[in-house]
Amino acid sequence: MRRTPHTPMRRLVPALALLASLAGPPALAQYRPPPMSESQRLVKDGETAQVSASAASASGDKKEADEKYRKALALFEQALAAEPGSVAAAAGVGSAANALQDWARTVDRVKPVQAANASELSLAYPLGVALFKLRRFPEAVPLLEQVAGADQAEHLIVHYYLASYYLFAQQGDAAVTRLQKYLTLRPAKLAGNDFQVHELLGRAHVLRRDGVAARASFTQAQAGRPESPTVQQGLASVLELEGKLGEARTLLEGVTTRFPQVAEPKEKLARLYLASGEVPRAEAQAVAMVKLGASPSAYLLLGDVRLAQKQAPAAEEAYRKVLELQPGLVLGQMAVGKALQAQGRHEEAIQFLEAAVRSGASSVELWASLGSVNRRAGRFQRAVEVHRRVVEMVPRQALGWMLLGADHFATGQWDQAIEDYGNALQVEPTHAGAKQWLARALAHRARDRGGAGRADDAVRDLRRAFDLDRSALMARRLTAALMETRGYADARKVMEQGATLPGATWREQLLLGYARLGAGDAQAALEAFGRAGKQTEEPDQQAEASVGAALAEVELGQVDAAVQRLTEVGPSRTAASVAQANLPRVLVRRALARLETGDVEGADRDLDAVDKLGTGKRTDLTKLVLFARGLTRAEGGRHAEASAALKKALTPAQPWAWPNTRALAEAFVLYKKGQVAASRKQLAAASKKPMPGQPRWLASLTGALHRREASLAYASGNMKGAEKALKAALTAEPEDVLLQHNQACVDWRKGKSSEALATWRRLEPAVSVASLNLGIDAQERRHEPAEAVDAWRRYLASGPGPRQAQVREWKERLQSLHGLAEPSGAAPTGATAEETTP
């Protein structure tokens, strides 16, 4: 055999070694963690002891669990002492101390470390829980809210705690949010306790005033469980929210009967009795609660009952019993302060509450009560200081701002009070009390501004107040301010709303009448005054309404009725003063109206009555009376006296007179004197700048001047001048029958007899003097005595006139001379005719 060649052994071994090294796994270096510090070792041992404690607690061995927790706490504290800034050690101390309910230890050990590690949830959680258990809510709530924001299942209880606090703080929306988050995160194995959460949800919805959601939550809490007294109490709160107080009481009365040993429904029922003023029934429930057990809530209720019975010393005794049972209870401390205040012992109340604060008690309610009692004792600066503390404690609530507003309101510092109540509304825009008190503060500031001559500022304040408080009272205040600034149209709009608001009375109708009167609607004003008189049975108030109606009647031209009302006022002093202030003006108004109708004697009587009443210090009215006197003197032909009176009345110029009134008055007097040219000159000067409403009067006086000029020319035999003046008058008033008649008289004098007779016959039914003139023509020109007698007979039958006697004499003389008998059936008349011929 041939021998196969092979690689030498010394070369194969290294190759195999290399292959093996390439084919096998890589060789790793061994890792060893760095050695633990003493603090870390103690933390690890503490965590081991804590696990054992949790296991013992789960098995029901409370003693073993306590021992293990104490061992864990000791280890964690040693670790924290070794490394004071250790987060793990501080977190261990917090969890172990909380398990042992040693809340103060947690706060003492964990708080410094948490301050240096503000974002560390492992510290915020135990510290927040401990502070919450110690009822240090202002410190606890921010920490618990920080933890809740992480939405971690191991922090589930935080949502429950926060919801409980929000319920205590009356923050229904926030409580609902936390409770719903709790139901979302809670493990299925805890679902059996959801009834408690639903009951709290119901209470939160009651705070939100959502009756439907509250009823649903309480019903869900009650489902599948024996009847719960506290849930039934919640349903009673829903009924109360719905305004069904009778049903709520009936429900609670049934609950207290079925569960006589349960205190909470008794307390709720007693509170309802107190609210409705049924103090004896509330007392029975309070006494029953005390018999069930000497609890703070029972004595607190009993104290409230005694206070409602005006038994402040007995109330104080009950409240002090509350503090004996639960020292430091804020509600008890405040209640004792309230009882001391009720006895007028403000200083003692202040000392008591200040002592409570010095002892460490700190709550919003305590500080609020302390500030309020300082205000009632007249210590306003201290009240402000304390209530600013309340604002700092609850910056997102209106409470502190409301209390500050009350402090400033009490001292009349309206600007500050308005600012405070405005801040309260910014925090809680729907706060009813803030709106109401802001409106009142604005009304008070408006009153001061109005008194200082700042009427426009007062109106602005009252407009804002009325927007906040739509009440009849606020409408009345705004209307009065608007009328003060002569804003009658706005005043009318406001009071037409105010008169329909709840609580509106006869007084709103009275003010509405004056607003309408100022706005120029006298008829609507008269109707409002009439309603005011019908809405009251008090004679004084009816008299005030009657005086207002009189002023409306004046504007409607019913001056006689107005004068009668103002002279027969009634028993009201207010109405008498209004009548006394207005009667002289109304009499002057009637005097001027009588002058327009030619009743000079009646106008003089009214002016004499004004002189007897007097015009007081009203210079403008005195001048108006003198002006009216001047007009009556002019009408009576006493022209010199008229001119003097008118000049004195209009010197200096009066606010009730137009700038050209003096020129118009002079033109009128000259017209009455028959100085037509001079009158026309004055009238031309006054007509250069006529005022509103004057053109018609100017045209009337111009026509009167034409008539007077025609009359004077006719009387002097100047037919050409008379005709010219009459044509000018007819140009302005072509349908005037008297002017047409007088033009016919001129035509007759000028020999145009046929035209004159045609005009007189046409006008005879409207102008009685036409009959007279027809008779004159028949007698003097045509020599027809029978026709003349017949014409004059028609004249005598037409009515009274100044020439009746003369015409009757003419008629009878012609009848005697010519043997003309009276027609059968004709009766003699004793009337006189009025002369209308120029």
UniProtKB/TrEMBL annotation:
Residues 44-63, 817-838 are annotated as: Disordered. TPR repeats lie at residues 296-329, 364-397, 398-431. Residues 1-29 form the signal peptide. Keywords: Repeat, Signal, TPR repeat. InterPro entries: TPR-like_helical_dom_sf, TPR_2, TPR_rpt, Ycf3. Coiled coil: none annotated. Residues 821-838 have a biased composition (Low complexity). It comes from the Bacteria. This is Tetratricopeptide repeat protein. It comes from Myxococcus llanfairpwllgwyngyllgogerychwyrndrobwllllantysiliogogogochensis.
